[in-house]
């Protein structure tokens, strides 16, 4: 049994989908111009993709459920966060995820490289869609303190078989700390 797999309930997935619609509407109405301006060159804009926005919230929900924390800790307002998705166990967490079931990298998007050090988060967590089902099942693959990511990340070259944008900072799953270590942190 995978203790780091979270199955979202249908009503939670519906809330995530509704959230995705609200966020895209906010971007379309120019309510977050600075965030909307951070675009990966030659890639579709995620700011206008309801599905990607919904999945982002689903990963945040999975983390809260895994940690036995209420989803009310999350911001459900239709605007970008300040770099912190949720706070618990003394950690300011920025949740990263992929709906690709083969994904194994925690990435920091290339257009945000200039703000990596200044964001107020101190922890990055990686989630991945676990199964091709809805509502989704999400595996929490690992975590790292942000300063460790800053010091030990890899950088995607212009041509790479991962299809990352040139300059994307990332860590592979095997470089991350186990989720059990994060849970142990809570016991300290």
Report what the structure shows.
α1 crosses α3. Helices cover 30% and strands 21% of the residues. With 188 residues, it is α+β, with helices and mostly antiparallel strands. It has five helices and eight strands, in the order βαααβββββαββα. The mean pLDDT is 88. The radius of gyration is 16 Å and the shape is globular. The protein has one domain (5-187).
Give a concise summary:
This protein has 188 residues and is of the alpha+beta class.
Q: How many structurally independent domains?
A: 1
Order of helices and strands: EHHHEEEEEHEEH
Main structural class: alpha+beta
Instruction: State the helix count.
Output: 5
Q: How many β-strand stretches? A: 8
Query: What integer value in Å does the Rg equal?
Result: 16 Å
Major pleated sheet: 5 strands, mixed
Shape: globular
In terms of DSSP E residues, the strand content is 15-25%
Q: Termini distance?
A: 26 Å
- Uncertain parts: none
Q: Give helix % range.
A: 25-40%
Q: Name the average pLDDT.
A: 88
| Lateral strand order in the biggest sheet | 1-6-5-3-2
């Amino acid at each position: 049994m995978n203790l780091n797999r979270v199955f979202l309930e249908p009503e939670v997935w519906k809330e995530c989908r509704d959230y995705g619609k609200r966020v895209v509407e906010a971007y379309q109405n120019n309510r977050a111009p600075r965030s909307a301006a951070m675009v990966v060159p030659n890639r579709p804009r995620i700011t206008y993709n309801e599905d990607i926005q919904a999945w982002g919230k689903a990963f945040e929900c999975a983390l809260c459920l895994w940690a036995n924390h209420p989803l009310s800790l999350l911001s459900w307002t239709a605007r970008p966060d300040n770099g912190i998705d949720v706070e618990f166990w003394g950690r300011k967490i920025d949740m990263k995820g992929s709906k690709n079931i083969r994904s194994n990298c925690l990435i920091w998007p290339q257009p945000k490289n200039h703000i990596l050090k200044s964001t107020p988060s101190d922890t990055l967590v990686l989630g991945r869609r676990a199964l091709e089902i809805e509502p989704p099942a999400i595996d929490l693959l690992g975590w790292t303190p942000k300063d460790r990511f800053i010091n030990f990340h890899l950088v995607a070259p212009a041509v790479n078989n991962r299809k990352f944008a040139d300059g994307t900072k990332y860590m592979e799953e095997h470089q991350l700390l186990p989720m059990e270590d994060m849970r142990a942190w809570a016991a300290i």
